[in-house]
Amino acid sequence: MVTPIGIPDHWDDDNLILFEEFCELIRTPQRTVRDWRQRGVGPRWTRFQGVGRLYITVAEARRFLASATVNRAEVRSDD
Question: What is the sign, positive or negative, of the torsion defined by CA atoms of 69, 44, 52, 17?
Answer without folding.
Answer: negative
